[in-house]
Design a protein that fits this description.
The chain is about 35% helix and about 15% strand. By secondary structure, it is of the alpha+beta class.
Length: about 200
């Protein structure tokens, strides 16, 4: 338990990376661990587009064009040797819940039948497990939103329209650079007493 506590407490979002490559076998091991996150009906309806080395430029050239980089605060973020894009697949869940052992739930009729989008929830839990696995492996990682030019990025990478893009993960070896700290890094974490509502709100 103490090792797990250390991994959780030491994990931080990394915004400054070295250009040192990450062994593809290590990436595979992180994804293997991420695949063990909770999944409704064990559907595992998520995918990960992984760009490595020079291929990461395809992501940055679209999401952060060269003209905007002069004012970009985290220049060493662009050095991350891996950019991974987590994608949630709603159709995998409706197909799974149309199978005989789940059909009685009524969730197989379509995505609108679901009270909450479990494909998004499950993919998010896989991403969190991936981030913890990266920390455990001695790597830095950053999850961040893709707020610009998503359509162009999808076209460039051939991502199907029906898959939900949650964001992007930069992965690599940390660079000792204080400019990598986010603006929110000094905010205090809420205590359990501020979070827990025992026996009701």
């Amino acid at each position: 338990m103490s090792e797990f506590t250390h991994v959780v407490r030491s994990r931080r979002m990394t915004r400054a990376f070295s250009t040192e490559p990450v062994d593809p076998a290590v990436v595979d091991s992180l994804v293997d661990l991420a695949s063990r996150a909770p999944s409704a009906g064990k559907t595992q309806g998520w995918h990960l587009v992984v760009l490595e080395g020079e291929q990461t430029k395809r992501f940055w050239d679209i999401s952060l064009p060269a003209a905007k980089r002069a004012s970009f605060r985290w220049t060493h973020l662009l050095d991350a040797p891996i950019i991974a894009l987590p994608l949630a697949d709603a159709s995998a869940y409706t197909a799974r819940y149309a199978e005989p052992d789940k059909a009685r739930t009524g969730l197989g009729v379509g995505a609108d039948a679901w009270p909450v989008p479990y494909w998004t929830i499950d993919t998010s839990m896989s991403v969190m497990t991936f981030l913890l696995a990266a920390q455990n492996a001695g790597l830095g990682a950053l999850f961040f939103g893709v707020f610009h030019n998503e359509v162009a990025l999808r076209v460039e990478l051939g991502i199907p329209d029906d898959l939900e893009l949650l964001g992007a993960i930069a992965l690599g070896h940390r660079l000792d650079d204080e400019s990598g700290l986010g603006r929110s890094s000094n905010r205090e974490r809420r205590s359990p007493d501020q979070i827990i509502h025992r026996n009701g709100w």
